[in-house]
Input
Amino acid sequence: MGERLSGVLGCFLLCLFAACVDGEFSWRIWEFGVAIVCLVVPVLAMLHSATLRDRMFRGLRRIKILEQHMEKCRSFYNSTVELMGFRPLLAAVLISVGYWFLECMIFYSLLCGFGISMEMFHAILLLTAISIGGGLTMLPGSIGALEGGMIGVLMYYGADVAIAGGLTLLHRFFAMWSVVLIGWCVLIYNRKNFGLVSGNPGNRGAE
Output
């Protein structure tokens, strides 16, 4: 949840900046920004409120199916609150802004390569808006939601379905699947550190 929140917030800040520069959809983005702030600020306030926390856990104990999982629920809550503190959340959001800018540059480069005429900040605005929608679905990597949104937007701007599909697949490969492949290689190379070797079940990973 911490990763998804920081990712959505970073993407939204970049989207807002692009909207201010591009100007075409700025009023819609500002309204969306107010909605995001009204949603995020109360959630963060509730997470850091001891009174609300105690009331929440008292209510959860009354649910029989959750009663035996209270320790896991409390651990999940505490780790979420720790990750959503001001400093770690700010650092994560700044990193997210940089990541999303690079992903938008991949998208803009592919648009130029496929001969689709679009301003850079307009491309940033479109990709970040699509990514925010995909991120809110809570799907892993926004698989399905982002692809469908990107193909639909490209076709709306006059791209053929084959071009829209090809551009989307290339973008997802460079922006996500290449990173996943690198991550798998790192994970396999350092499998001992993650406790993935038989005879060493997570000891070093726990450390």
Q: What stands out?
A: Residues 161-189 form the longest helix (29 residues). Residues 200-207 have pLDDT under 50 and may be disordered. The chain has ten helices and no strands.
